[in-house]
Amino acid sequence: MRNNPLGLFIIPDDGLDMRLQVAKSLQIPTAHILTPPTNQRTIDNATLLAEKFNRAGVKITVMFCGFPGESYASIDEVEKTVGLAPESTCTARLEECKQIARFAKQMGVDTIGIHLGFIPQDYCCQTFQRLLQVTRELCDFCDSNEQRLHLETGQEKAEVLLDFIQQVNRVNLAVNFDPANMILYGAGEPISALRLLGHRVKSVHCKDAKWAANPGKEWGTEVLQGQGDVNWEAFFATLSDLGFTAPLTIEREITGPEQLQDIKKAVSFLNKTRQAF
Ligand code: MG
After folding, report:
1. What tens digit of pLDDT does each residue of 137-174 get?
2. Which helix (H) or strand (E) covers residue 114, if one does?
């Protein structure tokens, strides 16, 4: 895995220039970004943002969707508010996803990422069927823009996600694998999940976490990479077996100076740990 480019997850509203400087100084050549808010998705802003990344020499490989009203305060709140799963906001958010895909296209970004929300295990339930339909529609929209759609892991077990992807049945649908999310949500052991999802994994987040005392009922705890329960040697060995060539994108979901320090530590950790694979 020593030849995979490194990446950094960047939230544009969270001190973009400084984060681009950090990426540059740490020789991180790629990024995943969260979409800017609705009122900033203009053509002018797409040009401006693309120029900033170009000047910094950082290529955006995935743009993630985000919506007003989403809350990650607890696992219950996620189920009620996140992604396309909640019925009351589904139609409006599908349209917003298309707007995000258009904005990404204007910036030259060929992949959209999303937390769909909890995919139910029950194929027959309305939520599952509705999610199938809207995901197909979004895939087809992305396809018309020559874009892919990546579903972020964590909210459901890998088996459920795999079945869902097979039922959506679109070639431009893939997985953004976040091993820490599997632990944070209590959705299953990350390495076996990675093996199961296999070649469908087209992008990853390098993030670490510790299991909760009651996994699935309460949050696990996100920690500095290398200090959590992700087996990074097995993670890189599995990615290497899969022939994974995409960036290793560092994600540290805290704010302030500690985030920047942890990103530097994560780069050192990654560079040391991935060498053997
Ligand atoms: Mg993630």
Report:
1. 999 999 999 999 999 999 999 999 999 999 999 999 99
2. strand 111-114
Cα 182 to ligand 1 centroid, rounded to whole Å: 10
For residue 171, how far is its CA from the centre of ligand 1 (angstroms)?
A: 22
Q: What is the pTM of this model?
A: 0.97
Separation of alpha carbons 94 and 98, rounded Å: 7
Q: What is the distance between the alpha carbons of residues 128 and 94, in angstroms, rounded to a whole number?
A: 15
Per the domain annotation, does 1 fall within a domain?
no
Pairing of strands 221-223, 208-210: antiparallel
Total residue length of the chain: 277
Instruction: State in Å: Cα 224 to ligand 1 middle.
Output: 14
Q: If you average pLDDT over every residue of the chain, what do you get?
A: 96
Q: In this structure, what CATH number is given to the domain that contains residue 242?
A: 3.20.20.150
Q: Is 177 a domain residue? A: yes
Residues whose CB falls within 8 Å of the CB of residue 178, separated by 6 or more in sequence, listed in order: 152, 153, 154, 204, 205, 207, 251
Q: What percent of the chain has pLDDT over 90?
A: 94
Tell me if 66 is assigned to some domain. yes
Range of the domain at 73: 6-276
How many structural domains comprise the chain?
Answer: 1
Could you tell me if 192 and 161 are in contact, meaning their C-beta atoms sit under 8 angstroms apart?
no
As a whole number, mean pLDDT of residues 203-216 equals 97
Q: pLDDT at residue 255 above 90?
A: no
The rounded distance, in Å, linking the Cα atoms of 118 and 258 is: 30
